[in-house]
């Protein structure tokens, strides 16, 4: 997902089914989060849930969504 990559996360590997795993280092800890890439369109709640699992603040998520 370009949104995650613009936030400093990177593709980790393919998961089971249609999932892709992304990795990001937060406060020195490696966090891996699955993302369902098989869905044709992602719901807004799902789009917000992924960055929150990486512990991004609401402000950081807002800036990412605006493209800043």
Q: What does this entry look like structurally?
A:
It is a single chain. The chain has 3 helices and 3 strands; from the N terminus they run αβββαα. By secondary structure, the protein is an alpha+beta fold. The protein has a single domain (2-66), classed as Metal Transport, Frataxin, Chain A, CATH 3.30.920. The model has no long low-confidence stretch (mean pLDDT 84).
List keywords for this structure.
3 strands; 68 residues; 3-stranded antiparallel beta sheet; Metal Transport, Frataxin, Chain A; single chain
In a few lines, what is going on in this structure?
The chain is of the alpha+beta class and 68 residues long.
In CATH terms, what is the architecture?
Answer: 2-Layer Sandwich
- How much of the sequence lies in strands comes to 25-35%
Average predicted confidence as pLDDT: 84
- Structurally, how many domains make up the residues? 1
Total E-strand runs? 3
Rg, nearest Å = 12 Å
Distance between the termini: 16 Å
Provide a count of the helices.
3
Helicity, as a percent range: 25-40%
Report on the biggest sheet. Answer: 3 strands, antiparallel
Q: From the 3D structure, determine the CATH topology.
A: Metal Transport, Frataxin, Chain A
What is the class in the CATH system?
A: Alpha Beta
The dominant shape is globular
The H-and-E topology, N to C, reads as HEEEHH
Helix-strand makeup class: alpha+beta
